[in-house]
Write a structure and sequence with these properties.
By secondary structure, the protein is an alpha/beta fold. Helix content is 21%, strand content 27%. The strands form 2 sheets. Strands 5-6-4-3-7-1-8-11-10 form a 9-stranded mixed β-sheet, with helices on both faces. A two-stranded antiparallel sheet has the order 2-9. The protein is globular, with a radius of gyration of 17 Å.
């Protein structure tokens, strides 16, 4: 697992990025994100492979959906996850100091995480308990603190870095991600948030170890050596 930068018991929590969609040209989100375009312009196109699957419907409290390789690989991404970490931009479009507690995320009263979620922000906010076992905890004192709290909450299960692009990049550069599953969608965005700009993955110790060709995406698994 990743080397721990803080003096605490990291337990056996694997830190992973899972089912994170990117375009063929390497973008993890489109440009100009706002309330109408939470993933940026054309960003939703990256997730077409996932949105029709049975597991997507299930975690959003719906029925139906497609089965197959994409569904199976997506379902793997939810296994053994004890806590999540995400950036404030992924949590919502609100910027600056929290004016009130009215914004509760994009996902309604029963978010699909069903575990503690640690939201990195520069502005403190009280924890937000939702239906289905999800509680959002707002961490205003950095990446290491968020990871420490997430690993403690996970109780030996995995910690999933949900995104967005900036948060994944920061944890990669800190050497704290053990494994990544990237879903390469057959989409060319041309602009947006580029996932690996300026990051030398081999130099950081990462290498691919598994590739799965799904119906609507190619799934590439990367892990950190030793």
């Amino acid at each position: 697992m990743a080397f721990c930068l803080l003096e605490y018991n990291c337990s056996m929590s694997k830190v992973k990025v899972a089912a994170f969609s990117i375009s063929v040209d390497g973008f993890g989100a489109g440009p100009r994100q706002d309330a109408q375009n939470p993933l940026g312009l054309r960003g939703l196109e990256l997730h077409g492979w996932f949105q029709e699957t049975e597991i997507f419907k299930k975690v959003h409290g719906q029925s139906g959906g497609t089965k197959g390789i994409d569904n199976d690989v997506a379902a793997e991404s939810f296994e053994n996850v004890g806590a999540w970490i995400m950036g404030r931009n992924m949590f919502g479009p609100v910027r600056g100091a929290w004016q009130d507690n009215s914004w509760k995320g994009w996902w309604g009263d029963n978010p699909p995480f069903h575990a503690p979620v640690f939201v990195l922000t520069h502005h403190a906010r009280s924890p937000l308990a939702m239906e289905g076992g999800t509680t959002f905890h707002f961490v205003s004192d950095g990446l290491d603190t968020a990871l420490k709290k997430a690993q403690e909450a996970a109780q030996g299960k995995g910690v999933r870095i949900g995104g967005g692009v900036s948060i994944i990049r920061q944890y990669l550069l800190a050497g704290q991600i053990d494994e990544m599953h990237l879903a390469v969608a057959p989409v060319l965005l041309g602009e947006g948030e580029y996932l690996f700009s300026g990051i030398n993955l081999p130099r950081l110790g990462y290498s691919p170890f598994r590739t799965v060709h799904g119906e609507n995406a190619t799934h590439v698994f990367i892990k950190k050596r030793g």
